[in-house]
Records
---
Amino acid sequence: MKPWKKFYCRTFQTALKIALPFLPYRKPRIIGSVKNIPDILSKKHCGRVLIVTDQGIQKAGLTKRLQKALSESGIPYSIYDKTVANPTTANVEEAMEMYISEGCNAIIGFGGGSSMDCAKALGVRIARPKASLAKMKGILKVHKKLPLLIAIPTTAGTGSETTLAAVITDAETRHKYAINDFPLIPRYAVLDPKVTVSLPPFITATTGMDALTHAIEAYIGRSTTPGTRKDALLAVKLIFENLDNAYSDGSNIEARRNMMKASYYAGCAFTKSYVGYVHAVAHSLGGEYNVPHGLANSILLPFVLEAYGAAIHKKLASLAVEIGIAGKDTPKEQAASDFILAVREMKKRFQIGDTVGEIKEEDIPKLSRYADKEANPLYPVPVLMDAKELEPFYYMLMEH
């Protein structure tokens, strides 16, 4: 990266870090079961709620407990279930039409990160009906209060139930971008492990490693606080202790509950301390080829950690100590290497490969420009890289 661009990025990041204590961050209020939602809706005088989800969730019957709770309390609802894996502007417009025509005044995002992102973006459109989502791209451009937003994650991974971000794909250009503003943080998050029990093993694994990526990228970045470091360490520990159990025995409620906690803590960490180039590259792959976000992060994570090199040895060594694979007296370089190896071995146990078959060589310059634009200057990464320096990651992932 050119010196002037490095200077600009680091100055921008330093200013944001200084501003951190003064920004209106908040954590959603945690609810332990979907059965508690009707009480909240009644107290908030919500006449009709729109549930934003996807067809896979619907077919699996995961919304039935929520629907039953709403019906028994006499709260009418509508369901938008056409959200796709990387939600598009078209999804949001369709959901908005339903929200308005059905007379809704509250939103429930029910599903993985895609459904929650779609629900958040819908809230943005309702709050700012005259502005396109593209105009909301970037940071702090929404400004308006959203309708009551409740997030019910069905995967323990995205952490979207805690964050101020919604990631949306332009339906025409396939460009994927983030909208970041404080009103997007859901008011309530329902951490109910029962809704994750029927999640298939592979999705359990990739979403769990998505949470791991959030925690690691937040921890190794340059804008951490004592609070985000604590949350990230706890998330990493919980994931290494519970993900294998949740993967091999989906009905293990304790493992599922701990994974939901891990996802939540990882979300709290990265919503303040941001992510890094794993996410930026993964988002470009999701936008162009519809690669599921958790899978893209899982594949990329060890490659990017290795590329950062000595800049993160000390922090990775702390993570290695936290999960019990290194001692405090283990040389930092060795402990960091052991940690990256533990991530690689985790991928192997979950049968997650090292390649993305969809990548076309002619797309790489465009993809790396997207990643560069997303990450710089916002993400306080340990080592700065521009579009040209990000290109090798795409070549690494190509099937040779």
---
Amino acid sequence: MKDTVITAAVKRRELWIWLTCFIVANVVNITTIICYATPWYEIFTQLGYVTVLSVLLYVLTVVVRLVWYAVRRIAPSEDKR
């Protein structure tokens, strides 16, 4: 089996992408707290749901990035005329 090396730059980039998803999920949570006039301690009590939502957002971004990569690999390049 072939060994795969994941560089520190790739790990850092993926961590930043997930952190962005986590922040977006927190913003959604805060928005719903304001819209539905619920207590502010729900920021902490709903942390599990926020984490799950951030993972779902991350998976969605991975799927979109994989589709983008596949389309770029399949589509003919303009340079190869």
---
Amino acid sequence: MDKLKLVIPSEEYLDQVWAYRQECFEADSSMDGCGPLRFNENPKQWLADIRNYMDPATVPEGKVQATQFLSVRESDGGLVGMIQVRHTLNDYLRQFGGHIGYSARPGERRKGYGKEQLRLALDFCKGTLGLDRVLITCKTENEASRRTILSAGGVYENTLHEPGQGIDLERYWITL
């Protein structure tokens, strides 16, 4: 596996982000950890939206401050995953979303990138945000995500049904 780095999205990466989005649509794959990527039709609007989440002065009402990262391969600058770190938890995130959402590009899965991007995000949570522990959730049928969470030291708490999405989510805590 090539070494990864987490980078803040910029105009430089928008073509790759949009290709990532298209690949997820074609694979009928979720876009967890991508902010509002699924719902944006305009790359520049997506970039503006995630920047609003990153600035405490412009976080949308009812939402929490979050840092959006791209997981980029150091060897060639290729986008292999996306991960979003929520700085705090509101009621919804405390139950269903957690501190971290992430996904790997469909063509880059099963290569260890999920584990590495989560490790890097946990370093950010501890070193930059000063968090002692984080909550991460995954769908009950997402074995790959469960393995990624467990590999990072995740401890299962419970499974809750998210009525708005009609899905069951396993909740894990990771002590930093």
